[in-house]
Amino acid sequence: MTDQLTVDLGELRLAYREHGRAGAPPLLLLHALGERGADWDGVLPQLAPHHRVYALDLRGHGDSDRPARYGLELMRDDVVAFLDALGLERVDVVGHSMGGVVAYLLAQSRPERVGRLVLEDIPAPHPRPATPVADAPDGPVDFDWAAVGQIKAQIDTPEPAWLERLADIAAPTLVVAGGPASHVPQDRIAELARRIPDCRVVTVEAGHLVHHSRPAEYVAVVAPFLHPAGRAD
Fold it and tell me: Whole-angstrom Cα distance, residue 111 to residue 69?
């Protein structure tokens, strides 16, 4: 059963979905830009049968507050406040795309809070040519369109320290790359992985939306990493 919940962090209210056995090791799922925690529903039960799962709606997304101010480090700090509010000292973390950037920022700045780390087809922290942000669509969207430009600007011109501090990540890390069909440069993903001390890369030929396009293959790669043989719960 999946519960729909919210937590008040003072200046921000975040929504999240909670699933799995109470008392099991906690797992945090962080979605891509424009998505929400429910984005993981297609793989959630099979992905982490041995975990208590928290699928967060990051600020400006889903049912979380839309404060009009967005940034990847702000989202990282929101995650820390979320963990503190729920009394979660150490969690495994899975992040896709933008959520993967938030995840590695958390892992490099607060290594004691992250047990195992999965990064799904994430942009490496290298500058890239900026492109215009499209106009907001006419119909409603499930997130604050203002987040697009602010987040995209940071991904286009990342802080240099983000690349340098990948070496500070202490968590065993799995990078799931989407292969040549993805718009994310795969050579940059490989370089990012080389900078993380305990990291391996697996490619699932699915494009950018790996856990959507190839859910069974995604689960077959990620689930054993999150719960390796011999892990005590």
Answer: 26
CB atoms within 10 A of CB 112: 9
- How far is the CA of 161 from the CAs of 153, 155, 165, 196, in angstroms? 16, 13, 6, 14
In three-state secondary structure terms, 117 is: strand
φ, ψ for residue 212, nearest 5 deg: -90, -50
Tell me the average pLDDT of the chain.
94
pTM exceeds 0.85 for this model: yes
Q: Do 208 and 140 meet the contact criterion of CB atoms below 8 Å apart?
A: no
Torsion angle, alpha carbons of 125, 162, 91, 205, to 10: 20
Contact 167, 197 (CB under 8 A): yes
Q: Identify the structural domains of the chain with CATH numbers, from first to last.
A: 2-226 (3.40.50.1820)
Q: What is the mean pLDDT of residues 174-198?
A: 97
Q: What are the distances in angstroms from CA 25 to CA 33, 98, 139?
A: 26, 24, 40
pLDDT above 90 coverage of the chain, percent = 86
Helix, strand, coil content of the chain in percent (nearest 5): 35, 20, 40
